[in-house]
Design a protein that fits this description.
Its main location: cytoplasm. Keywords: Cytoplasm, Kinase, Magnesium, Metal-binding, Phosphotransferase system, Sugar transport, Transferase, Transport. It catalyses: L-histidyl-[protein] + phosphoenolpyruvate = N(pros)-phospho-L-histidyl-[protein] + pyruvate. Its cofactor is Mg(2+). This protein is α/β, with parallel strands linked by helices. The chain folds into three domains: 108 residues, 3-Layer(bba) Sandwich (Glucose Oxidase, domain 1); 109 residues, PtsI, HPr-binding domain (Enzyme I, Chain A, domain 2, Orthogonal Bundle); 313 residues, Phosphoenolpyruvate-binding domains (TIM Barrel, Alpha-Beta Barrel), CATH 3.20.20. Helix content is 49%, strand content 13%. It is globular.
Length: 577
């Protein structure tokens, strides 16, 4: 058989060698059927029983999600449960069954499809993603009305190949010894990608034609590092990848021994490794993985159902983290709402990622920002809390947030509340204008944190969640690297430290470049800390300086990645994944 390689988007790192299971989840067939007057009550009962069964299923899935992903990761399933409790929609469906005297599944499909079409036609990427969730929920209810079952378990380990996977599919398959996920659709921020990373299952998305060329029973190799799937590999390729798996296993064992060792190069240059977290419960894992502090605490998780908690409620959350990580520091980012994060006062926009989000919301809603700043200041009483503002685009915004922080301080002084008078103030560098103004802005703040996810997206004008253009999202693009180098140099000239908290900081291939640029701190997901530490401890700072300088000469991402891969292979042979 001919070997075929399909390129996609690397969504979750790892390698899987095994047998493919082509998963085709057919949409339930819905036809319109008229019912008689005496059948109406039974039809409504049929609908309500399906709702209860769907709730029961989702409660089980939600419990499994909390167990495997934590509270934050399980929120998508909690949202689906809330939809099933939407009295307005349920009453509307019951009323239509009574008046129109038609079958329940037809009304459910027709009614929910209106919402789905509205979401899909919006220019809002967040709503488009929610449309997929609503489609999944609609199909679940209809299947339960029709009392159909669908595959969620299989007997032996498989690499699941599908056009797309719903969050529930990806989670339920993880109960089996699933080896990996490969989907035609999806981008780096799709639910399949996010869940696969959280579950530590190798995944490649955006393959486009995987289901066209792969059938159940085919032998495949899924490479979550390179973003490829190999169909019908020959023995030579299988042996090559088996060797890679062995090297990865040996490499992972070494990582476990690094917890108490410093992130220091062979020639003595020290770096700080911090953790990105969303929940106070994640602090313990961060410490266990070797984090020296929290470099990014995302505060959006405390916004429940679009409602922002009051100052006291926020303080209770922030102080938990500050006390748990003490004497390590915690950088608390003010609400990064808008864009893909919705709250009650959200204004629907055609282009939310270029609209009302981040610090723009805070400055437009000073009561919200001041309440949060007071809560953060109260949690800073031991001197280990820092405050950071997202989506800053100009010097004027920097000066505005500084005034707001001073106002929050004066309000607390009037109340006789203690706080750290010298709390450090920093900003996220995630907008090209802020990066290009870094020299001027650095003189007015205490630290920078580079948010590469948005910086890359805005610099290259590419939506990384859009599978059609996701391949253009390039963290090693020369323009991106030059911006990062400029920001680091500007910060150091002003004698302030600079951190990176975007996904690029978690990429071991980028580590040697970032070390060479002189980045002071890496703020990453807790699981990424040992791997980044291993790279830092395996290189010389002078080599990293040479490599980063040389990388800036190349003119394409492909050239830069090939150069880094070759250099890393020579320095850390076991790192050749």
């Amino acid at each position: 058989m001919e070997v075929k390689i399909i390129e996609g988007i690397p969504a979750s790192p790892g390698i899987a060698i095994g047998i493919a299971l082509k998963y085709e989840k057919l949409k339930p067939k819905v036809t319109k059927k008229e019912i008689k007057e005496h059948e109406v009550d039974a039809e409504i009962d049929r609908f309500l029983r399906a709702i209860e069964k769907s709730k029961s299923e989702l409660h089980k899935i939600f419990t499994l999600a909390v167990e495997k992903l934590g509270s934050e990761g399980a929120q998508i399933f909690e949202a689906q449960l809330l939809m099933l409790d939407d009295k307005m929609i349920i009453d509307r469906i019951i009323e239509r069954i009574k008046v129109e005297k038609v079958n329940a599944e037809f009304v459910v499909n027709d009614e929910v499809e209106k919402y789905i079409k509205f979401m899909q036609s919006s220019g809002d990427d967040y709503l488009k993603e929610r449309a997929h969730d609503l489609e999944d929920l609609k199909n679940r209810v209809i299947r339960n009305i029709q009392q159909e079952k669908w595959l969620s378990r299989f007997d032996t380990s498989r690499i699941v190949v599908a056009e797309n996977l719903t969050p529930a599919d990806a989670l339920l398959f993880s109960r089996n010894q699933v080896l990996g996920y490969a989907t035609d659709l999806g981008g780096i921020t799709s639910h399949t990608a996010i869940l696969a990373r959280a579950l530590k299952i190798p995944a490649v998305v955006g393959l486009r034609e995987a289901t066209k060329f792969i059938k159940t029973g085919d032998t495949v190799i899924l490479d979550g590092y390179k973003g490829i799937i190999i169909i019908n590999p020959n023995q030579s390729l299988i042996d090559e990848y088996q060797e890679k798996l062995t090297r990865i296993s040996e490499f992972e064992k070494k990582l476990e021994q690094l917890r108490f060792l410093p992130a220091e190069t062979i020639d003595g240059k020290k770096f700080t490794l911090l953790a990105n977290i969303e929940l106070p419960d994640e602090v313990d894992e961060a410490i266990q993985k070797g984090a020296e502090g929290i470099g990014l605490f995302r505060t959006e998780y405390i916004i429940s159902n679009g409602v922002i908690p009051d100052e006291d409620e926020q303080f209770e959350e922030y102080i938990k983290i500050a006390e748990k990580i003490y004497p390590g520091k915690v950088v608390i980012r003010t609400f990064d709402i808008g864009g893909d994060k919705i709250f009650r006062d959200y204004r629907r926009e055609d282009n939310p990622f270029l609209g009302w989000r981040g610090i723009r919301v805070g400055l437009d809603k000073p009561d919200i920002l001041l309440s949060q700043l007071r809560a953060i200041l109260r949690a800073s009483v031991k001197g280990n809390v820092m405050v950071m503002f997202p989506m800053v685009a100009s010097l004027e915004e920097v000066r505005e947030v500084k005034k707001m922080l001073e106002l929050a301080k004066s309000q607390l002084r009037e109340r006789g509340v203690k706080f750290d008078e010298n709390i450090k103030l920093g900003i996220m560098i995630e907008v090209p204008s802020a990066a290009l103004m870094a020299k001027e802005i650095a003189k007015e703040v205490d630290f920078f944190s580079i948010g590469t996810n948005d910086l890359i997206q805005y610099t290259l004008a590419v939506d990384r969640g859009n599978e059609t253009v996701a391949k253009i999202y390039q963290e090693f693009h020369p323009a991106v690297l030059r911006l990062i180098q400029f920001v680091v140099e500007s910060a150091h000239r002003a004698r302030i430290p600079v951190s990176m908290c975007g996904e690029m900081a978690s990429d071991p291939y980028a580590t040697i470049l970032l070390v060479g640029f002189g980045l002071d701190e890496f703020s990453v997901a807790p699981d990424s800390i040992p791997r980044i530490k291993q790279v830092i401890r395996s290189i010389k700072y002078r080599d990293a300086r040479r490599i980063s300088k040389r990388a800036l000469v190349f003119k394409t991402q492909g050239e830069i990645k090939a150069f880094i891969s070759k250099e890393l292979k020579g320095i850390i042979p076991e790192f050749d994944f």
